[in-house]
Amino acid sequence: MGIIALLVEACDHLADPAERVTLLVSRGADPLEIGTIGALQMIAFQDGYALDDTYVLTADLPAYETSGWNGGEGFKPIAGFFGTLDGQGHAIRGLWINRAEPYVGLFGWIGRGGTVTRLGIEGGKVSNTVGVDDWTGALVGHLSGQVSRCWAVTEVFNGDAAGGLAGGVYGGTLSESYAVCNVFGRYRVGGLAGWVQAGGEIRDCYAGGTVRWLDNSDWGSAGGLVGRSDGSTLERCYAAGRVFGSSAGAGGLVGLASGATDSFWDIDTSGQAASAAGTGLDTDQMKQQSSFAAWDFATVWDIVEGASYPFLRWQSGLGQSLVPDVAGMHFTDAITALNAAGFGYAVQPSYNESVPAEYVIEPVPQSGFFLTPGFFSPVTLIVSRGAVPHEIYSIYELQLIGKNPEFSLDDVYRIAGDIDASETAIWNGGAGFEPIIGFTGKIMGDGHTISDLTINRPGEDYTALFGMISTGAVIENLTLENLFVSGGDEVGGLVAFGAGATLTNCAAEGTVNGEYYTGGLAGFLYDCAVDSCAFLGQVQGQYVTGGLAGEIYNSVISNSHALTTLFSPEGYAGGLIGSVNGGSVDSSWAGGVVSGGLTDTGGLVGYAYSTTLSRNFASARVIGDSEVGGLAGYALQSTISSCYVVGPVSATDTVAGLIGACNSTDISAVYAAAPVSGTLNVGGLVAGDYGGNTAAAAFWDIDVSGLSSSALGAGLSSAAMKQQDSFAGFDFDAIWDIEENQSRPWLQWQEAAGHLLVGDYSGRDATEARQELETNGMAVSIQPRDSA
Fold first, then answer.
1. Which of 191, 553, 637, 670 would you call most buried, defined as having the most Cβ atoms within 10 angstroms of its Cβ?
2. Terminal-to-terminal C-alpha distance of the chain
3. Residue 221: helix, strand or coil by DSSP?
4. What is the pLDDT of residue 9?
5. What is the reported pTM?
6. DSSP β-bridge partners for residue 419
7. What pLDDT is stored for residue 754 in this prediction?
8. pLDDT for 489
9. Distance of CA 334 to the CA centre of its chain
10. How far apart are alpha carbons 113 and 115 in whole angstroms?
11. Cα(153)–Cα(97) distance, rounded to whole angstroms?
12. Are strands 3-7 and 22-25 parallel, antiparallel or unpaired?
């Protein structure tokens, strides 16, 4: 044993005695042996465990204790590994990592020249709470080196790029490896790897388990094997896991890809008929060697004809067993079959209208995979309850959704009675209820109320009762009363982020505070349908803030309303929706006070792009800086028809009764009867005509607004505004109604909704006016004002 090198800032100089001198001492050709999880954690964090050294595992490593390490953050990822680690066929079992870091996995990142081989991760959980620009995988977050003959059977949760084995492969190589994991992610999500790019290579690999794509939008992608592949190589691979995603970015093998060679996915088990690359086969074909003609079944692959998916020959040395085919069995018989094969099990009851109660719908992982027997690789039996919802009686049971096998994220639940959630104020050190993430099932509220819910997580994204709901999720007939929610970006009372979901007849009342994308009921909705929903209370966000929802994207809102006191200092503030990007808002309204800063503030919608607004009204008091309107702050390439405004509007610049400014927008059958005040560019109906607009049957009340001019539309006196003949172009048969000489036009759906006519009480005694209004069923408040 001799000195290899002397490490100081410079050699051959006079050094301070306190200066540290590191001696690199040769061990000869012997690798450093790792026999405990504690010793593995020393790599990079203790002298003698360098990132560029050579290591071997001498045994399987129990890692259950890591759940209590570092205040619950668990194992600290080994970042910047350039050495070699040979697991020698051993597994790390029960690994727990719960970090808010860019690169999360057993190895945070493996650099070029780094090599990991023959190592498994079984059981436990690996999660990342950053949510943006992060990479998470059970074995490695970001791979630029070499990984071969490795495997993972665990759960991975991440907000950006997530994969069962690797979060991302950037110029690295992943070969002869597999993952059978439950993977949750938002943007680039894959059963094996989230994102492969920059010449990365994946060869002779496979994935099973489940992939839950939480975003399900145009911005991301999800695949059974890889979420996204750019300029990379995918050869001789397959995927057979369920992929939860319905948009164009979801695929059975790959969500978004430049190509794949001799690679396949199971159409039946994935639930995906298409993929950006690869060939789809049914389950029977996936278990026949002849389907994989170009594969090497002599030295790399093996198969049990008709019973198993292809597996890697090196797996034979791990003592693994084949997950038996138990679908359709009574669950007790299925348990017997699993025990005979040496597997642990969990039972997950599920709503199902076609499979009889107590019979197995499917096992997860699916039958046909070879896995290590034991409780660290349990098989979950999805067992039918029949057409019987899972009943929820308490806030505690609601919190178990997604946390307990009996409370799955894709089940059907019924709220069995009103729920008192006041105890959540002291849960989790005052942070309250933990948002439910990744829900794809159904909540049947049955008209019940959840009261006094607290979610107090300032700065934490996706904060609401349901932090994320995705493809196929339905929430209906549920009310939240006296709630308090505080979070970071994407914050709402009921839903923080929704994609491909439906909300029907839901209401919330209380206080909601967030930063970007904040709404009383929902923070951000993509490709969702919202009908007959409401919010009453206070909403505050920094940017893109709405009384009902912060932003909707390609979504449909109908028969809904919000009555709020709302504040959004950076703009994009709307009484109902902060920003509408595609989709439509129909037969809805907003009232209260809407206060927005900077730009784009509206009584109904702050910003509208490629949107249809029809049969809506706004009565909110609107206050803003620039591009401020009683209905919409700014409208671009949109259609606005059969809408009206009666609330006062004030701003510094570009302010009007209906729309602050518009571009390439068609406006028809609308009016504004709103007091308007501003310093620059003020209009009765529209202030800023940026070109390409049309306006037909568009009016404003000259007397009420105090304005005789507008960029678009025609001015009418208050008397003319109460005469049907003044509104040529309005459909008084199907859409509008009026009480001649007594009222301005209103929308016919308002009467069916129980709205009442408010007469002209100007100059009347306040006490008499109040008594008359209250007799007619109106709520009234008195606001003294200087009339000098």
1. 191
2. 98
3. strand
4. 41
5. 0.87
6. 450
7. 83
8. 95
9. 34
10. 6
11. 15
12. antiparallel
Residue 541 in tokens? 């966000």
Strands ordered across the beta sheet of 573-574: 516-519, 543-546, 573-574, 599-602, 626-629, 653-656, 680-683
For residue 710, what are the β-bridge partners?
none
Which letter, b or e, does each residue of 312-326 get, where b requires 16 or more Cβ atoms within 10 Å of its Cβ? Answer: bebbeebebbbbbeb
- Using alpha carbons, list the distances in angstroms from residue 211 to 40, 107, 473, 613: 29, 22, 16, 36
Give the residue carrying structure tokens 């200087």: 786
Report d(CA 390, CA 319) in Å as an integer: 38
pLDDT of residue 582: 95
Q: For 163, left (φ over 0), alpha (ψ -120 to 50), or beta?
A: beta
**Nearest CA among 431, 492, 428, 434 for reference residue 456:** 431
Q: How confident is the model at residue 6 (pLDDT cuts 50, 70, 90)?
A: very low
Query: Can you tell me the mean pLDDT for 260-280?
Result: 96
pLDDT in tens, 286-319: 999 999 999 999 999 999 999 999 999 999 999 9
Alpha carbons 468 and 505: distance in angstroms, whole number: 19
User: Contact 550/523 with Cβ under 8 angstroms?
Assistant: yes
The distance from CA 562 to its chain's CA centroid, rounded to whole angstroms, is 23
**Mean pLDDT in the chain?**
92
Model pLDDT for residues 405-418, shown as the tens digit of each residue:
889 999 999 999 99
Token reading at 707: 């304005």
Closest CA to 212 of 364, 434, 95: 364
Structure tokens at 259: 């190509």
Which are the contacts of 348, defined by CB distance < 8 A and separation ≥ 6?
380, 381, 382, 383, 405, 406, 408
Cis peptide preceding 365, ω within 30 of 0: yes
Hunting for tokens 């070969």 — which residue is that? 175
Q: What is the pLDDT of residues 23-65, one digit of tens each?
A: 555 556 689 999 999 999 999 999 899 999 999 999 999 999 9
pLDDT digits (tens, 9 = 90+) for 488-518: 999 999 999 999 999 999 999 999 999 999 9
Distance CA 582, CA 573 (A): 17
- All residues at 6 or more sequence positions from 296 whose CB lies less than 8 Å from its CB, including other chains: 204, 236
Amino acid at 212: R
Write out pLDDT tens, residues 351-377: 999 999 999 999 998 899 999 998 667
Distance of alpha carbon 159 from alpha carbon 186, whole angstroms: 5
Q: Report the distance separating Cα 112 and Cα 170, nearest Å.
A: 10
- What secondary structure does DSSP assign to 139-206, as a single string? SEEEESSEEES-EEESEEE-SSEEESSEEEEES-EEES-EEEEEEEESSEEESSEEEEETT-EEES-E
- DSSP letter at 617 equals E
Residue 265 · residue 234 · CB < 8 Å: no
Cβ(215)–Cβ(244) under 8 Å?
no
- Find the mean pLDDT for residues 566-595: 98
Tell me what pLDDT residue 785 has. 56
